Amino acid sequence: MSRDVEILADPADEPGLTDEWRALAEAAGNAFVSPEWYAAYARHYGQDAPPFVVRVRDADGSLAGLLPLCRSGRTVRFAGANVGDRFAPVAAAGREAEVARAAAGALGREAVVLHNVDAGAAWVPALGEGLRGRVAATRLRGGVMPFVPLTGHTWDSFLGARSRNFRQQVRRKERALVDGLGAKVRATSSPGEVAADVAEFFRLHNLRWDEREGGSTITSPTVHAFHADFAAAALERGWLRMSFLEVPGDGNEHSTPIGERSSTPGDRTAVAALYAWRIGGRYAYFQAGFDPEWAEKSVGLVLMAHTVREAIEEGAEEYDLLLGGETYKARFATDERAVETLVVAGALDPTRLLAQVDAGVRRATDGLSPELRARLRDAARPVLARMPGTRRR
After folding, report:
1. Dist CA 148 CA 347 (whole Å)
2. Which residues of 297-322 are buried (b: 16+ CB within 10 A; e: fewer)?
3. Which residues form the signal peptide (predicted)?
4. What is the pLDDT of residues 202-233, one digit of tens each?
5. Where are the beta strands (DSSP E) in the chain?
């Protein structure tokens, strides 16, 4: 089929493209390949790895799809993959492979690094077929993305499908916070709230991670600025779901006894935060945080349960817990997707050779204790920084 394929350094140069692109991303329920994610990446990371779009139109001029990419040296990857969780060609369902094949033909001989793509996706070999020369995919690592199908559920039926212990915990903890302490959930709802709310989210997120091994991966000022930018755009589009569980008083668990209220109406403190978005039929949980002093009150559990209920009431088809198989996610999720990070390149391409070394190191250290892995990782940090799968946030 005849197609018009073009590389665009600035997608805004083509009138109407951004709106067409957004419509496809919304239909796929994937904010990570939206023009808003791409624009935030371009503003905050584009100087080091310039972004570009490979746009594919059908012969009749309609948009078949596109690949939002960036280039670092001879390596190409999805723009924003350093801060995102799931990537794929932007295309109507079922057309990802043909878009990937057509777009790849416009690329040179760069190695293509694919972070967190669906395992076994048919568009990956199609991308390789479209690249110049003899190429193959090297798998760096795998991961899981838990999720909860919501179609047909009410909040009661969702809880009814969980264990009795889980149901009792959710209801008891919520009553203790809401009825006992006067806790309320507040959502970011106006542009003037975004900057302060994003800062408050990161404050609580960092508190949650400060005492954990390895710490958080989203602590840099650039990451914070990226998300303040994206959150503002997501709010404008009606996607943003940033929620805070707030209690009366100064946030000290012991400052307001159960059954009593703060003497200063309206003086409330956030003890948990959840950063999510609703795009298309998918309600996507990205990150959360809470004050560890409130851990015994299960403030994170209560806030997440609130957002699942919200997703059901909105008519979302799915609550997506995104990348990571953490235990707390398993309490809610009933299904999961497998994802993998790949390098697609020629047999003798240096990036592919590095990828093979990277994959070998990961396999060799899989059976080691977390402490020994951490020591080896610290010792090898200068080398690992050059590996193709590294995500520099």
Report:
1. 40
2. bbbbbbbbbbbbbbbbeeebebbbbb
3. none
4. 999 998 776 654 556 677 899 999 999 999 99
5. 3-8, 51-58, 63-72, 75-78, 90-91, 111-118, 135-149, 184-187, 240-248, 268-279, 282-290, 318-320, 335-346
